[in-house]
């Protein structure tokens, strides 16, 4: 099962000309894909997340943090989602959140500490800036997409491998509102 977490924004050193953003949860998503029985792909998402990020004027330095509510996992199948919340997978009663806190950002790669199921590992996301600009309500927004592949067993989530693949693709879609 894929857990992401990606998601998340970046936590890095920031120049004097940094802009701070709050993640807009209505326009931000963390998704995952895992293989199922060698015949299909299961896609899911997490519906509840919050976070923040900072960027310098060059866009090549910044920081980010993301917190995802584990119980918000959603694969559009109630029975499967209940199983994903169980101790077999996310164990959401014991591990209520999935977090990411960046440690480095070079404008293309965001590296940081991802914590899933109580286990923290360094991961790197490929980052693509979608765009930035004024919104219709007088604010200013910036959007990014991030992707990585993790092995869920590295985070202590190894139930039913290889029926559900160990390899989990994570994608993070973040829109932030400048503060």
Proportion in helices? under 10%
- Count of helices? 1
Q: What is the element string, with H for helices and E for strands?
A: EEEEEEHEEEEE
Characterize the overall form: elongated
Query: What is the number of beta strands?
Result: 11
Report on the biggest sheet: 8 strands, antiparallel, barrel
Q: Give the strand order, joined by hyphens, for the main sheet.
A: 1-4-5-7-8-9-10-11
What's the alpha carbon Rg, rounded to whole Å? 16 Å
Q: Could you report the average pLDDT, rounded to the nearest whole number?
A: 91
Uncertain spans:
1-16
As a percent range, the share of strand residues is over 45%
Class computed from helices, strands and strand pairing: mainly beta
Euclidean distance between termini CA atoms: 35 Å
Can you give keywords for this protein?
eight-stranded antiparallel barrel; 4% helix; disordered N terminus; 179 residues; mainly beta; YceI family protein; elongated; TTHA0802/YceI-like_sf
Question: Which secondary structure elements does this structure contain, and how are they paired or packed?
Answer:
Blueprint: E1 19-23, E2 29-36, E3 40-46, E4 49-55, E5 62-69, E6 73-74, H1 78-85, E7 97-105, E8 109-116, E9 119-134, E10 140-151, E11 167-178
Antiparallel strand pairs: 1-4, 1-11, 2-3, 2-11, 3-6, 4-5, 5-7, 7-8, 8-9, 9-10, 10-11
């Amino acid at each position: 099962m894929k857990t992401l977490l990606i998601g998340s924004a970046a936590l890095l050193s920031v120049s004097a000309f940094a802009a701070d953003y709050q993640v807009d949860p209505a326009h931000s998503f963390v998704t995952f894909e895992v293989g199922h029985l060698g015949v299909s792909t299961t896609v899911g998402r997490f519906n509840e997340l919050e976070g923040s990020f900072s960027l310098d004027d060059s866009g090549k330095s910044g920081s980010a943090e993301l917190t995802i509510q584990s119980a918000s996992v959603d694969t559009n199948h109630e029975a499967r989602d209940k199983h994903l919340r169980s101790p077999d997978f996310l164990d959401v009663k014991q591990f209520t959140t999935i977090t990411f806190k960046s440690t480095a950002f070079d404008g293309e790669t965001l590296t940081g500490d991802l914590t899933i199921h109580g286990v923290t590992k360094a991961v790197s996301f490929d980052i693509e800036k979608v765009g930035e600009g004024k919104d219709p309500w007088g604010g200013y927004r910036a959007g990014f997409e991030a992707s990585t592949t993790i092995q869920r067993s590295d985070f202590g989530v190894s139930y039913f491998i290889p029926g559900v693949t160990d390899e989990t693709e994570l994608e993070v879609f973040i829109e932030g509102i400048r503060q």
